[in-house]
Amino acid sequence: MVNFYKNKMNLFNLSRIISLVSFFCIVISFYLLIFEKKSATIDELVLVVLVSISYLIPVLIFNFVCFREITFWIRKIRDK
Questions:
Q1: Which residue has the higher pLDDT, 2 or 9?
Q2: Which of 20, 21, 31, 62 is 20 to 30 A from residue 74's alpha carbon, by CA?
Q3: By the 8 A CB rule, do 72 and 56 touch?
C-alpha cells in the first residue's frame, strides 16, 4: 500500500511538472508574439494558438491515463 501511494505521488509530481512546463511555453509564446514582434498577423496568432493547444494535449492525455481525470491541474493527493 505504501509503495502504491509513493508511485501515485511520483506521478502527481510529474503531472505538475508537465503542466508547469506547458503553461510556461504558452506564456512565452504569447509574450514573444505580442511584445517582441513588431507587427503580428492573424496567421501568426492562429499558429500560436494551435501550438498552445498542442502543448496542452500531452497534459490532458497523461492526467487521463494516470489519474482518470481530464484536467490540466491534478488536485493534491491526501494521506489516508
A1: 9
A2: 31
A3: yes
The mean pLDDT value for 54-61 works out to 93
Q: How confident is the model at residue 27 (pLDDT cuts 50, 70, 90)?
A: very high
In whole angstroms, how far apart are CA 55 and each of 3, 44, 66, 71? Answer: 31, 16, 18, 14
Length of the chain measured in residues? 80
- Supply the pLDDT for residue 39: 87
Q: Is 23 exposed, middle or buried (0-12, 13-18, 19+ CB in 10 A)?
A: middle
**Grid cell at residue 1:** 500500500
Residue ranges per structural domain of the chain: 25-68
Whether the per-residue pLDDT at 79 is higher than 60: the answer is no
Contact 74, 27 (CB under 8 A): no
